[in-house]
Amino acid sequence: MPKHYRPAGKKKEGNAAKYVTRTQAVKYLQISLPVFRKLCILKGVFPRVPKKKVKGNHHSYYHMKDIMFLKHEPLLEKLRDIRTYDKKIKKAVSKKNRDLAERLLTRKPSYTLDMLVRERYPKFIDALRDLDDCLSMVHLFAALPAVDRAVDGEKIPVERVHNCRRLSHEWLAYISRTHKLRKTFISVKGIYYQAEVEGQIVTWLTPHALQQVLPEVDYRVLLTFLEFYETLLAFVNYKLYRSINVNYPPILDPRLEALAADLYALSRYFDANGKSKQIENQQEGTNLDESEVRLAQLHQHLPSNEPGALMHLLDDGSNKDDQDLETRECKSLFKNVKFFLSREVPRESLLFVIPAFGGTVSWEGEGAPFDESDDSITHQVVDRPIQGRKFLSREYVQPQWVYDCVNARILLPTDKYMVGCIPPPHLSPFVDNEAEGHVPDYAEAIERMKAAGRKEVLPLPGTGIEDLDDPQGLLVSDRQEAIEAAKRKQQISMLEKQYLDELKLELKGAPPFSQDIDAVGGGDDAISDVQQIADDVSNMSKVVMPRKKRKLLEAMEMSKERKRSSVNRLKERKKNIDQAKNLA
Amino acid sequence: MKPLKENGSDKPKKNEKDRKKLQKLVAKNMEETLKRIEEAEPGTESSEDSPFVSGEGDSDDGDNDGDLVSEGEDDDNYHAEDSHGESDDSREVVEESDSSEDEVAPRNTVGDVPLEWYKDEGHIGYDLAGKKIKKKERQSKLDSFLANVDDSRSWRKIYDQYNDEEVELTKDETKLIGRLLKGKAPHPDFDPYAPYVDWFAWDGAKHPLSNAPEPKRRFIPSKWESKTVLRLVRAIRKGLIKFDEKPKEKPRFFDLWDDSTSAERQGLAYIPAPKAKLPGHDESYNPSAEYIPTQEEINAYQLLFEEDRPKFIPKQFANMRSVPAYDKSVQELFDRHLDLYLCPRVHKKRINIDPESLKPKLPSRRDLKPYPSTCYLEYKGHKGPVITISVESTGQWLASGSKDGTVRIWEIETGRCVQIWDLGEPVEQVSWNPKPEVPMLAVAVGHDVFILNTKCGSDEQQKTIEEILHVEPQKVEDDSDSTANVVTWGQDEKHGGIRLKHFKLSKKQTQRIPFKTKGIPVATSFHPTRSIFFTATKKDVRVYDLIKQKRIKKLDAGVREISSIAIHPGGDNAIVGSRDGKLCWFDMDLSSKPYKVLRAHKKDLTAVAYHRTYPLFASCSDDNTAYVFHGMVYSDLNENPLIVPLQILRGHSTGDGRGVMDCKFHPRQPWLFTAGSDSLIKLYCH
After folding, report:
1. Is B451 domain-assigned?
2. How far apart are CA B120 and CA B161, in angstroms?
3. Interatomic CA distance for residues B402 and B384, integer angstroms
4. Are residues B499 and B626 in the same domain?
5. What beta strand segments (E) does B228-303 contain?
């Protein structure tokens, strides 16, 4: 008799009825496996783990309710229609009935995933919460080459790449415009950004702007995901744009678009849109879209670093009440700093980051708002040792300076970031150094600088024209941070004291061991004895623990030990490096 | 057919007889396929073949060609003539071509087998008579080449592997092949573009097939069509159908999350996928120097298993422009998304607890005082590992036996060695008389047991001891069943005692254990109050009633190898030490399984001991430690014994590969004696 025998005619119950394997599910839905995969991806159905795996351990199980959910999806029927329609086209083509084929092609049934987005994310917050993978993928595909290799079956259509590029720019423009960017990190894999949108932390990775490597993977899976992500991101962008009273989809200045300065074009569009709302009554009778385009072009001719325009920009942001402290702090970081980007620096990333923190930026090339010879430029971002002509009035910094400033939220001294020298280590802002147990030197240095900056609000040496009537937000936030830091310090000292007390108590509780040491005849030194006693105390209670708990405790200790050993390894390396430095 | 006919009639006729023969042959040749050509056998058809071949051979090439061409033409017209006049003959030709396979039997009868089978043989097959057909001698390459050069017709020669001979193709055959190569019909006479003969044309074709009259419906307009037209016209008039307008496009994107509709998720509970891990300092393009592994460490990674190797090796780039594209970005994205749709998701409770909270709440050790905690005295003097110790019941004397063959008696308070016996052999066990008024010592050495007068008591006590220790010379016992275990009870003058074995002390007679023990006993013990006897074998502990002489209980420790046992002074609890470092507490009223298993030691337990009065017990092990536990047994049967580990006693060092060999409590004080293999005895006091 099989293990899970059920008499004929008896209804299935429990796990056998609730969960089906993938093969069963495919059979039940009467679809092919690729279609099933596609549906699962689009509907967000994933396997689940039943309590009892009726069919064995090596299957993936789907909940029957999930399968029913797929079964009643209108998309399923639509996909079937498309399949039959494709067959019709194929038939017409192979019968050389070109007319029919063309006519059929023009009326091909299509589907949208709008309602699926709505279904999967009933609230906007839910969508934002799940946006990490979406953004990473869209940004990566925006950097991929369009591939049309019919032989391998992999095909990345060029429209999809363009769409991804557009969507990613729209997202970046929104984040930059609303100053929601919080952290950046240049890693080997690309540049990580972290933004806070409506209270949700969104982190994404953009690849370095270079030719990407295309490995042999199943691109159909990726493209199916991308299909959903494109729809999702477009709707999210729509919602976000609407929240700041900007029309979506944006209409960009074709000239800037041709120059591949989409991000800048978008920011111009924002300005234009904001202004058009204000002067709408003046521009009556004209087509709204056209006026926007014209306005954008108009702005193009105006020097955009004109203070009036800038002030308008800032006003636009600051009249919102719901802006929190952090946003205000972020907004004013590069408030009076004017950047110029050289040719070799990652322009797109810097065009995104610098305006996000309130700076003005231009670049070398056509369509730039101001050119290199502008006297008001305070910082020039370069990544090449040889410069044609150097302006004495400005600082020449490596791109890392911008990112480090952003993470530290202060303007760091630029002397270490001079062109041609290796900049100080770039540290990840996502790491909690205290929790990790090892604080890199430069992190400490930054902390010290921050503390110093808080005590005395002096303009840093790098920024000569740091205005003194700086926004109040900065001061407020400084004070708050100081309070927080003081609290933390107090807590740490308290903990230390407590620990010392406990140690003392332990020693008192232990018998007068100095005497026994004599009796034993000169044992080890007292420190190791104390260590021994502490160990013993901890071991003692382990003796009476049940095995299950003991194993759990051991596992926890092991993981702690692993962490500690990795920290120790770092410290060891650090010591060796320092020693080598001292010797040299 | 017709042009052929005309053609044929134009040409003149020549030598009738010769032509007939020739025609036959050529017709046949034309019909044959290449294979058949090769297989054509001159022997069987010599009558037909010979004229042609000989003619060709005799005449020179140029002539022959001309002849052949003319003959071919002739043949054509002859054929036509044939079809015209001699229908019989032509049919014969056709038949011949069809069944040529039957007619021209192959010389070789080997059949349709791969010829490789005959590769190494001297023959190529068998003829009709069943004789072997010998292979021809192979020409050397040079010869064949020279022959080829000399022979102008060599290009026409084909080697017939099957019959092992060279066949020369005739002109017609080559022509036939040429036609086949061009994709034409093999027969030159075949006309693919012959005019169509309409077999179905007949004279009376002007009449229709059917004489039925045209139906009326062919003449009246369709009702349904007019209805459809009417419908369309109406729709156009109403403006439902528009021609010049494009369908108005709705905006592609809209506010999907407006608050008008309910925001409830359908279906099962959504489990959000865990977010991707955020990068640490080491993934930076310019990490801090300590995050970059040294070259040695990178080399060491190669020694690791592939799955253990770090996936990512930090590297430093001097500036941002030198950072290359990350080659695994698509792969990593793909892996992540495979996880997203293929990995089963479960809500897992992450245990985020303080590890300290896992540890059981034990009563404070301070409340459980007194217990031995520190080393107070050392008893030095033994030359070898101290195997066994015993404390006198008054608590004044300590006896110890060592591997160096000596038994020593120490004064506990001072640590002075009072007496030494050298017994010559390693001492296995020493034990004081439990009665304090008769201070005698039993010592097990090798196969013997000594009972020694320690001379520790007063003069009266000495007298009684001497009385007890006096033995008559051995007399042969009558008991037949005890003869096997006869033990000599002899006075030992040298040490002032007696030597003996299993015994009843009062009668000075040995008594045999009346029960069978399974396995070798490793430790034994008496019940402190009742006449019950515990025997521990390697696997389990058996409890025997000595009066009823039967087994009353079996305790299953579930450990690998039992090494020692001790009984609680109350008698209801026992502790058993094992060689896998476990200590089992048995509550004998509760169950035959251990009430608690304590895994304290890392190595073999050597001895366990209960304190006689204090709620203490101890275990010692080869890992040079002794544990002291608080073991409170309540008189209330509902309450389980309370076991609290109190102290780990260290101080002994390893000697002889062993650690602490024995431990005993002081009978009155909460003190513990431990005997170590480093030839020391230590006293731990509170």
Report:
1. yes
2. 14
3. 6
4. yes
5. none
In angstroms, the CA B96 to CA A278 distance is 104
Residue B85 DSSP one-character state: S
By CB atoms closer than 10 A (0-12, 13-18, 19+), residue B507 is exposed
Sheet holding A200-206, edge to edge: A181-186, A191-197, A200-206
Which member of B255, B285, B365 has the closest CB to residue A239? B255
- pLDDT of A289 > 80? The answer is no
Q: What is the pTM of this model?
A: 0.63
Helix axis angle, A33-43 to A22-29, nearest 10°: 100
Side-chain-side CA neighbours of B334 within 13 Å: the count stands at 16
Of B279, B340, B600, the CB nearest to A543: B600
Residues B579 and B450 in one domain: yes
Residue B104: pLDDT band by 50, 70, 90 thresholds? Answer: low
Per-residue confidence at B338, pLDDT binned at 50, 70, 90? very high
Contacts of A427 in chain B (CB under 8 A): 281, 284, 288
- pLDDT tens-digit series, residues B406-429: 888 888 888 888 888 888 888 888
| Residue B566 domain-assigned (yes or no) | yes
Instruction: Evaluate whether B369 touches B686 at the Cβ level (below 8 Å).
Output: yes
Q: How far apart are CA A43 and CA B267, in angstroms?
A: 11
Do residues B424 and B312 both lie within one domain?
A: no
- The pairing of strands A338-341 and A379-381 is parallel
Q: Which of B264, B314, B336 sits opposite A133 (nearest CB)?
A: B336
Strand partners, A360: A338
Q: Hey, are the CB atoms on B326 and A207 less than 8 Å from each other?
A: yes
> What's residue A527's pLDDT?
59
Number of domains making up chain B: 2
Residue for token pair 């021209």: B104
One-letter amino acid at B382 equals: H
Does one domain contain both B377 and B288?
Answer: no
For helices A33-43 and A74-94, give the axis angle rounded to 10 degrees: 140
Asked if residue B371 and residue B313 are part of one domain, the reply reads no
* Domain residue limits at B308: 281-319
φ/ψ (deg, to 5) at B582: -105, 150
- Using pLDDT thresholds of 50, 70 and 90, give the confidence band for residue B21: low
Q: Inter-chain contact A65–B266, Cβ cutoff 8 Å?
A: no
In this structure, the strands spanning A191-197 and A181-186 are antiparallel
- Inside any domain, residue B549: yes
Do residue A119 and residue B283 have CB atoms under 8 angstroms apart? no
Token pair listed for B328: 């695994």
Q: Domain for residue B246, yes or no?
A: no
Tell me what pLDDT residue A308 has: 33
CA distance A313 to A321: 16
How buried is residue A398: exposed, middle or buried, by Cβ count under 10 Å (0-12/13-18/19+)? buried
Nearest to B2 by CA among B73, B68, B84, B116: B84
Phi, psi angle pair for B349, to nearest 5°: -75, 120
Strand A338-341 relative to strand A360-363, pairing? parallel
CA distance B311 to chain A (A): 13
Distance of CA A440 to the CA centre of its chain: 23
The verdict on B535 and B617 lying in the same domain is yes
What whole-number distance in Å separates Cα of residue A106 and Cα of residue B255?
Answer: 29
Give buried/exposed letters for B581-611 (b at 16+ CB in 10 A, else e). bbbbbbbbeeeeebbbbbebbeebbbbbbbb
Burial of A213 (0-12, 13-18, 19+ CB in 10 A): middle
pLDDT single digits (tens) B354-375: 888 888 887 888 888 888 888 8
Residue with tokens 């220790």: B469
pLDDT of residue B46: 38
Rg of the Cα atoms in chain A: 31
